[in-house]
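Whether sequence alone determines local backbone shape is best considered at the level of individual chains. The sequence in question and its structure tokens are set out directly beneath this paragraph.

===
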Amino acid sequence: MKRTIQFGILLCVAIFIAGPALAQDLFIYPTKGQSKEQLEKDKYECYRWAKDQTGFDPMQQPQATAPPPQQQPRRGGLVRGAGRGAAVGAVGGAIAGDAGKGAAIGAASGALIGGMRRRSQTRNQQQAEEQWAEEQATSYQQKRGTYDRAFGACLEGRGYTVK
């Protein structure tokens, strides 16, 4: 459930980042006195041509690639770390003369290290997902830019000024 929510948030971020590319409106001026009907016909034909040339359809909802695989956090990191630390601490404590005190210190240290590892893994996963979202937005913007250039070239070839 948590993974689904994170993925949804990242996808929204990717779409938000791509938003300026989605919102680009072209201004088309007929330089040869074309009618509104002719303009609409030419826009549709140029839409089809640009879509065929670029493989990008701005009328379709953006499709994201699969997100990076979720790394399953290691189970029992705190407990396992505490257990290992206690064992090492008990040995060290026995050498120093107090195995119980050494085991307690070792358990606390081991639990701390286990928790740090888990947090590091979570942080790395979040960074991977953020990078994926950024890549999705960049990919969409590049494809949209290529489509817009093709669409504009088509319209300019039909006697329109496109800005």
